[in-house]
Amino acid sequence: MTCITLFRFMIKNKIIGSQFLGVENVLSQFKSICGEDRVSVGQAVREQHGRDESMHRCCAPDAVVFPHCVEEVSALAKLCHLYNVPMIPFGTGTGLEGGVGALEGGVCFSLRNMDKILDLHMEDFDVTVEPGVTRKTLNTYLRDTGLWFPVDPGADASLCGMAATSASGTNAVRYGTMRENVLNLEVVLADGTIIHTAGKGRRPRKTAAGYNLTNLFVGSEGTLGIITKTTLRLYGIPEAMVSAVCTFPSVQTAVDSTVQILQAGVPIARIEFLDEVMMDACNRYSSLSYPVNPTLFLEFHGSEGSLEEQVKTTEAITQSNDGSNFQWAQDAETRNRLWAARHNAWYAAQALRPGCKAYSTDVCVPLSQLPQIIVETKEDLIKNNLTGPIAGHVGDGNFHCLMVVDPNDKDELHRLHAFTDRLARRALALDGTCTGEHGVGLGKRSLLQEELGCHTIHLMQSLKYTLDPKNLMNPGKVLLPFSRESRQG
Amino acid sequence: MTGRVLVGVKRVIDYAVKIRVKPDQSGVVTDGVKHSMNPFCEIAVEEAVKMKEKKLIKEVVAVSCGPQQAQETIRTALAMGADRGIHVEVTGKDYENLGPLQVAKIFAALAKKEEAQLVILGKQAIDDDCNQTGQMTAALLDWPQGTFASEVTMEGDKLKVVREIDGGLETIKINIPAVLTADLRLNTPRYATLPNIMKAKKKKIANMKPADLSVDIVSRLEVLKVEEPPQREAGMKVETVEDLVAKLKEGGTI
């Protein structure tokens, strides 16, 4: 979009009032804050910052800025606030729900230049990082210390981005999600104010001090402010790990085993479920020979002694639930081989139909409801002729259908959309949520309303209005838009 | 073989750090920069510890040459499973000028003193990329060498070593005692876990100076200048092949 078009667009959409001086002026003010080469209106750069890894189409911002420090972010935000320019924070662009699309234009704040790891406290098990630090970068940095940050959503995502989307991962069953592991946040609000949700520099392991603002911003997906620092809870790297695989005659027996394993107090680190369609896909993709049945992939962390006990207890439970072929291993090479199917699931699913696009659904229900929802979902897939092998974090009741669709087949896309709506509503009907870990983003805003009900949604909208009355922070995400009049006020 | 293995570990700037050259071009900035064990040394330690776990050798001794901070690197090796450490103290200008030949002399002396059966080093350090210390150590000791090792197996009283070479893989059989240098695919080093880091604090690190080993560490090399590679300049687009050829001729490339 050229500068003139931007100017006209902004006038037309009442984003700028008559006091606005001109886009060139804004851009030059941006440049004087963060430097000439840190502001881009190049088409390729803007498009790169208007898409993530979801199937939502690219919505490029009008400009991208690359600030270096929180003071620059604050100054830029003040400017955007003055001129009513929407702001979209951007970490690594690895989101799965279209959270970075600039639906109403505006400026994308790419935070990748703020990449310092600050304040590591090994005895206190905490560290503070800036948004440009990804989880693999942090864990590489920590490798000599015996500590790690275990939340693992798959992608090498920005940790502050993970905080913004309340990310989770395969070992949430033992280590929790971002909600449990963020101690403090530094946030730049819509008007440029810098706040620390738990107080500047504070990092007690627990607190009862005031409203829990930290967890207000965790999962807010950039709609309440720009996260510029996050203080994270670290854990000790496990002394030893054992991986195991077990096959089951049905989804029910696999889930029953999961429930019993948790009830037995086994501190299982990962417990992943792959359905038989997925196992078949994995066999084909990696030339493996797993039995084509619902399968559990398990991982145990602990000391040598405790591992032996954990594995023994788990094996007994799986056997009592008609599980078979229980294999386990401790050395890295065999563990990787046992888990090969789980590691390659995404690619194996895509390989089922080369040339097609893959999209992951994401719902979460109480454990006891998991067999029912998976069985009903599989029936739905077959009835509507859709390809959707299933992989799930069964210990949390969270599962994904890895949908593989032909992007040029309008009818299939329509069926996909209807299917995902039914899936989300099925989860809601079973006391669950329409999104276990990917977030609401663009596509699940109406589902969120159904999930929460009008009073709760109104409360969320009030909070949003309090923090961002002009609706400049990532507009169009999480909550359905309120009226345009409120932005003029 | 129930002998002793010496493993060399070098403290280098962490591989993830962006290197900056000092303004006076005398070297790179090291103050306040994260350092860690050279990645190839990690692989060497892992191999030695694996051998001990398989009961092929009895004791793993981690050795590092450098200032006080080199002890941190030795502690990491101890946390990975080495039994004890030796810190050969070299500081200041001596440390800045410390290169493969002097380190090789130190290792050769230590190998004799400790009656080691095997010396395992990383194939090269990621700061100087010399790839010389292992080879020089073997020459000084007059021991066979298995360099760029991607697989090491004990066969009776000999070592079978698969080496990574330009043409592919070469398999050799060498006598013990020997020097090995670890290449990337030899193994995947384990993480130092917290309990092991705690246990490592109790393991012993002996201190000594090069003079104690009768090693002369005077360098015969002098670094004249360190500079960054030339900044990458913006490219330019041309419309036709003729334009491209003309521009290349203009720039003296053809």
From TrEMBL, chain A:
<keyword id="KW-0560">Oxidoreductase</keyword>
<dbReference type="InterPro" id="IPR016166">
    <property type="entry name" value="FAD-bd_PCMH"/>
</dbReference>
<dbReference type="GO" id="GO:0005739">
    <property type="term" value="C:mitochondrion"/>
</dbReference>
<dbReference type="InterPro" id="IPR036318">
    <property type="entry name" value="FAD-bd_PCMH-like_sf"/>
</dbReference>
<protein>
    <recommendedName>
        <fullName>Probable D-lactate dehydrogenase, mitochondrial</fullName>
        <ecNumber>1.1.2.4</ecNumber>
    </recommendedName>
</protein>
<dbReference type="GO" id="GO:0008720">
    <property type="term" value="F:D-lactate dehydrogenase (NAD+) activity"/>
</dbReference>
<comment type="similarity">
    <text>Belongs to the FAD-binding oxidoreductase/transferase type 4 family.</text>
</comment>
<keyword id="KW-0274">FAD</keyword>
<dbReference type="InterPro" id="IPR016169">
    <property type="entry name" value="FAD-bd_PCMH_sub2"/>
</dbReference>
<dbReference type="GO" id="GO:1903457">
    <property type="term" value="P:lactate catabolic process"/>
</dbReference>
<dbReference type="GO" id="GO:0004458">
    <property type="term" value="F:D-lactate dehydrogenase (cytochrome) activity"/>
</dbReference>
<comment type="subunit">
    <text>Interacts with CSRP3.</text>
</comment>
<dbReference type="Pfam" id="PF01565">
    <property type="entry name" value="FAD_binding_4"/>
</dbReference>
<keyword id="KW-0285">Flavoprotein</keyword>
<dbReference type="InterPro" id="IPR004113">
    <property type="entry name" value="FAD-bd_oxidored_4_C"/>
</dbReference>
<dbReference type="InterPro" id="IPR016171">
    <property type="entry name" value="Vanillyl_alc_oxidase_C-sub2"/>
</dbReference>
<keyword id="KW-0809">Transit peptide</keyword>
<dbReference type="InterPro" id="IPR016164">
    <property type="entry name" value="FAD-linked_Oxase-like_C"/>
</dbReference>
<dbReference type="InterPro" id="IPR006094">
    <property type="entry name" value="Oxid_FAD_bind_N"/>
</dbReference>
<keyword id="KW-0496">Mitochondrion</keyword>
<dbReference type="GO" id="GO:0071949">
    <property type="term" value="F:FAD binding"/>
</dbReference>
<dbReference type="Pfam" id="PF02913">
    <property type="entry name" value="FAD-oxidase_C"/>
</dbReference>
Automatic annotation (TrEMBL), chain B:
<protein>
    <recommendedName>
        <fullName>Electron transfer flavoprotein subunit beta</fullName>
    </recommendedName>
</protein>
<dbReference type="InterPro" id="IPR033948">
    <property type="entry name" value="ETF_beta_N"/>
</dbReference>
<comment type="similarity">
    <text>Belongs to the ETF beta-subunit/FixA family.</text>
</comment>
<dbReference type="InterPro" id="IPR012255">
    <property type="entry name" value="ETF_b"/>
</dbReference>
<keyword id="KW-0496">Mitochondrion</keyword>
<comment type="subunit">
    <text>Heterodimer of an alpha and a beta subunit.</text>
</comment>
<dbReference type="InterPro" id="IPR014729">
    <property type="entry name" value="Rossmann-like_a/b/a_fold"/>
</dbReference>
<dbReference type="GO" id="GO:0033539">
    <property type="term" value="P:fatty acid beta-oxidation using acyl-CoA dehydrogenase"/>
</dbReference>
<dbReference type="GO" id="GO:0009055">
    <property type="term" value="F:electron transfer activity"/>
</dbReference>
<feature type="domain" description="Electron transfer flavoprotein alpha/beta-subunit N-terminal">
    <location>
        <begin position="25"/>
        <end position="217"/>
    </location>
</feature>
<dbReference type="GO" id="GO:0009063">
    <property type="term" value="P:amino acid catabolic process"/>
</dbReference>
<keyword id="KW-0249">Electron transport</keyword>
<dbReference type="Pfam" id="PF01012">
    <property type="entry name" value="ETF"/>
</dbReference>
<keyword id="KW-0813">Transport</keyword>
<comment type="subunit">
    <text>Heterodimer composed of ETFA and ETFB. Identified in a complex that contains ETFA, ETFB and ETFRF1. Interacts with ACADM.</text>
</comment>
<dbReference type="InterPro" id="IPR000049">
    <property type="entry name" value="ET-Flavoprotein_bsu_CS"/>
</dbReference>
<dbReference type="GO" id="GO:0045251">
    <property type="term" value="C:electron transfer flavoprotein complex"/>
</dbReference>
<comment type="function">
    <text>The electron transfer flavoprotein serves as a specific electron acceptor for several dehydrogenases, including five acyl-CoA dehydrogenases, glutaryl-CoA and sarcosine dehydrogenase. It transfers the electrons to the main mitochondrial respiratory chain via ETF-ubiquinone oxidoreductase (ETF dehydrogenase).</text>
</comment>
<comment type="function">
    <text>Heterodimeric electron transfer flavoprotein that accepts electrons from several mitochondrial dehydrogenases, including acyl-CoA dehydrogenases, glutaryl-CoA and sarcosine dehydrogenase. It transfers the electrons to the main mitochondrial respiratory chain via ETF-ubiquinone oxidoreductase. Required for normal mitochondrial fatty acid oxidation and normal amino acid metabolism. ETFB binds an AMP molecule that probably has a purely structural role.</text>
</comment>
<dbReference type="InterPro" id="IPR014730">
    <property type="entry name" value="ETF_a/b_N"/>
</dbReference>
<dbReference type="GO" id="GO:0005759">
    <property type="term" value="C:mitochondrial matrix"/>
</dbReference>
